[in-house]
Each structure stands twice: as structure tokens, then as C-alpha cells.
Write a structure and sequence with these properties.
With 315 residues, this protein is an alpha+beta fold. Helices cover 13% and strands 26% of the residues.
């Protein structure tokens, strides 16, 4: 989870426990199931380092867009020294990852969106994490980025190791199918809070689909176009875990391509299609692009604040 102080951790664990008691055991990923061991080769766990490189602690998810670059949520890394983090790829069981049994990479650089605003609702909640050395493992791979004109809709996939109904992280990687809703529906679910220019929302309008919980943020929502799977959004925030009418909110990656391409001299990501079976997702061109950064905005380093993310990030 994010770097909450102890009182905040206790508060949110209590809220999650109450939600579990009210909503029942299905809260741990409504409509979710265990992912295949190699189904999400681009999904990594960003962890706090333990002593001697062992007993690391899962913090957030992240998505590989190249073998040396991860996109995650800004709230996952803001205020955290790069030396205290490690990125683990190719894992299915979190218990294996935290013991340092899989491929770990140190962090060489963290770049947070210059217009990131933390707090209970995260604006421009996106960050780039560069790795010290490339991953070199056949079980690890990057995912293609969307085009600047990509619009995501229909059924997509989410995945993560976030909270279960026992209010602990899942050891197994869990996936869920969610429906991406129209910007109008998202704005209705979150009046004023939802930013239709830079965010998308998915799942749980009627409590019938998967949802995310703490520990899943920073990961992504992965959709399909005519070329295959692509990285549609960064898991950011929402109210409750599996709460009807409260879909998860994601930073829309297509709206941040200008900023991503501007960091450290230009693009650093794969354009190779991931091989997988598509779900029913439709696409349509946008009238224009609205990058989350101002054209003259400077890239900032990690900031000294963490947002309060309500019990969400794991559908």
C-alpha cells in the first residue's frame, strides 16, 4: 500500500473491514479470478526493500513499457527515495517476490508528473520509474502503448495483488474483467472529482463486476484494439472496494503520451503487439489530444507527500 502513517493505515483497514462485513466475502475481487502465471508479463510489483534484499514489502503495481521503464501512479512513489525501492518482474506469487527469489531491479530515476496533486483525489497521478539495468527474463515483457487518438471502451482487464476480503494482500496475482464507461457516466459517479480530459473509469456501476483495492493501484487497465492488447490506464483511486456505483478511476495513458515521450530524451517503450485473446472492446478516434502536462511544464522529481487513497484498488 502507499506510505500512510500508522494512524491512517489503521483507519483505512478499519473502513475496509467494515466494508467487508457489510458487502460480504465477494469484496476481494468481484468477478475476479486467479491470473495465469504468464498472463501479465508486463505487470511488476514495486516494493520497499527489506534487509539484505529479502523480506521486501509490496507497495504498488506498475506496468513495463520497456525493459527499463515502468509507468505507475505518482502516489506510489512520491516522497520515496529511489534507493529504498526495488521493482520485481516475472512474479505470480507475491510470497516469492518479497523473498527476493525472482528478478529484482534497482531504481535509477523517478519522474513524477509536474502537475501531480496528491490528496484524497489524485490529479495527474502518473509517474515514470526507470530501472538501473534491463530485465532479462523470458517471463518478463513490455506492453504496447496506445496511440494518441485511442479511446478505450467495452471490456478490459485489471490485475494486481491488492487487498482481499481478509484485508491483506493477495499472494496470488488476481485478474478481473471490467467495463470502461463513458465519461458522462464517470462524471455522474464522481461529480466534480472526475476529470474527463485525463481519466477513465471502469467497473462497478451496479456492483456486478471486478474492482480494485489498496495494493492494486499503480498497476493498469489493459484493453484491446485491432492490433491486440495495449496499456489504457494507470490505476489511481476510487471510493470503497467493490462498491456499487463507485467505479475505479484510471489515468488515461493516451492523454499523457506527450509528457511520457518528453522524459529523458524521448520515447522508451515497446510498439510490439502482445499476444493474447481479445475481449470485446471498441475504439473510436478522438477529436484532439489533451496531455496532462502543460506544454512548458518542467518535469519534477518525487515530491514529499502521499495521497490518501480510499479503500480501493483491486476489483
Amino acid at each position: 500500500m502507499c506510505n500512510f502513517n500508522k494512524s491512517l493505515v489503521f483507519f483505512f483497514l478499519t473502513i475496509c473491514a467494515i466494508a467487508h462485513a457489510v458487502l460480504g466475502a465477494s469484496i476481494n475481487i468481484i468477478g475476479g479470478e486467479e491470473a495465469g502465471e504468464d498472463e501479465f508479463p508486463f505487470l511488476v510489483t514495486i516494493q520497499y526493500k527489506g534487509a539484505n534484499g529479502e523480506n521486501n514489502t509490496h507497495n504498488c503495481g506498475g506496468t513495463l513499457i520497456s525493459m527499463t521503464r515502468v509507468i505507475t501512479a505518482a502516489h506510489c512513489v512520491a516522497g520515496t527515495p529511489k534507493e529504498s525501492l526495488t521493482v520485481v518482474g516475472g512474479t505470480h506469487l507475491l510470497s516469492s517476490a518479497v523473498r527476493g527469489l525472482l528478478q529484482n531491479r534497482d531504481v535509477s530515476n523517478i519522474v513524477i508528473h509536474p502537475n501531480y496533486e496528491g490528496g484524497s483525489i489524485n490529479k495527474n497521478d502518473i509517474a515514470i520509474v526507470d530501472l538501473s539495468t534491463p530485465f532479462e527474463n523470458p517471463r518478463i515483457g513490455s506492453i504496447p502503448m496506445p496511440s494518441r487518438w485511442q479511446t478505450s471502451s467495452g471490456q478490459c482487464l485489471i490485475a494486481g495483488w491488492g487487498f482481499t476480503e481478509q484485508v491483506v494482500y493477495s499472494d496470488k496475482l488476481i485478474k478481473g474483467r471490467v467495463t470502461v464507461h463513458s465519461k458522462e457516466q464517470c462524471s455522474t459517479s464522481y461529480p466534480v472529482l472526475f476529470d474527463p480530459d485525463r481519466q477513465i473509469c471502469a467497473g462497478n456501476l451496479n456492483g456486478e463486476t471486478a474492482d480494485m483495492c489498496p495494493g492494486d493501484t499503480g498497476g493498469g487497465i489493459y484493453c484491446y484494439n485491432s492490433e491486440g492488447m495495449y496499456f489504457a490506464g494507470v490505476a489511481s483511486w476510487g471510493f470503497g472496494c467493490g462498491t456499487a456505483g463507485r467505479p475505479g478511476v484510471f489515468m488515461e495513458v493516451a492523454q499523457y503520451l506527450n509528457w511520457i515521450n518528453s522524459v529523458n530524451g524521448g520515447p522508451n517503450y515497446s510498439t510490439t503487439t502482445v499476444s493474447s485473446s481479445p475481449t470485446t472492446t471498441t475504439t473510436s478516434p478522438l477529436e484532439g489530444e489533451n496531455d496532462g502536462a502543460n506544454d512548458n511544464g518542467d518535469v519534477s522529481s518525487a515530491e514529499n507527500h502521499k495521497p490518501i487513497v480510499p479503500c480501493k484498488v483491486r476489483k
